[in-house]
Amino acid sequence: IVMTQSPLSLPVTPGEPASISCRSSQSLLKSDGYNYLDWYIQKPGQSPQLLIFLGSNRASGVPDRFSVSGSGTDFTLKISRVEAEDVGVYYCMHALQDPRTFGQGTKVEIK
Amino acid sequence: QVQLQESGPGLVKPSETLSLTCTVSGGSISGYYWSWIRQPPGKGLEWIGYVHFSGSTKYHPSLEGRVTISAHMSTNQFSLKLSSVTAADTAVYYCTRHYNWGTYPLDSWGQGALVTVSS
Questions:
Q1: Which parts of chain B sit beneath pLDDT 70?
Q2: What is the pLDDT, as a whole number, of residue B101?
Q3: What sign does the CA torsion over A67, A46, B49, A90 have?
């Protein structure tokens, strides 16, 4: 399964919204009604960390300004109001089957 | 809170075997799946494979035949061996834990270990 993210670079203004697109080469929607898609953020100089799993479930401690919309093959990660701590590279990763594959990553930086 | 720490040689010669160990603290490897992920310098993330605490494994097809991931209950560790390495295997290697629900996402990551393949 090929995961394609866009844009690859996203300059953002603090307080403004931001969106990242993730598309998969096949549907990630299973018969249980869930989309088997996770999102990770790799902040500068750090290991990646889980952001959202099973389509739209925020990981522990993730603020509610992060949300995901979409289903099947097209998804959008939305940040309602960007904060300085949100800078980093965002990756989507499918969990539909093995091998799991990641998108190329979207680098979010402050303008 | 579980913590993961990679350890092993930072420099490996071409054609030799890369060996890394992940030590798990603050929790047991029992009951979970554990994966290795790698990130070539300046590039994205690649899933290498996973091991279940019971010993079952699954590997990325592109690495099948060269990779072995093992779980070591007695020491609360799991390990990665990658044979016949080339410069293309130079990367930061992360050990990770799968959360036990839903998509089994990677909810805990080690700090990463840079392994350089060079003579």
A1: none
A2: 85
A3: positive
> Under an 8 A CB cutoff, do A48 and B94 touch?
yes
Mean pLDDT of chain B: 96
d(CA B73, CA B4): 15
Q: What is the phi/psi pair of residue B88, to 5°?
A: -65, -15
For residue A96, give the DSSP letter. S
Cβ atoms within 10 Å, residue B103: 24
Chain A (54-73) residues lying within 8 Å, Cβ to Cβ, of chain B: 54, 57, 59
Residue B89 sits at φ, ψ, to 5 deg, of -90, 0
Facing A49 at nearest CB: one of B45, B102, B109: B109
Measure in Å the smallest separation between the Cα of A6 and chain B Cα atoms. Answer: 14
Tokens describing residue A51? 């952001």
Strands A74-79 and B33-39: unpaired
In this complex, which of A38, A57, A105 lies closest to B44 when CB atoms are compared? A105
For range A44-62, the mean pLDDT: 96
- Burial class from Cβ neighbours inside 10 Å (0-12, 13-18, 19+) for residue B55 reads exposed
Choose among A40, A47, A57: nearest Cβ to B110. Answer: A47
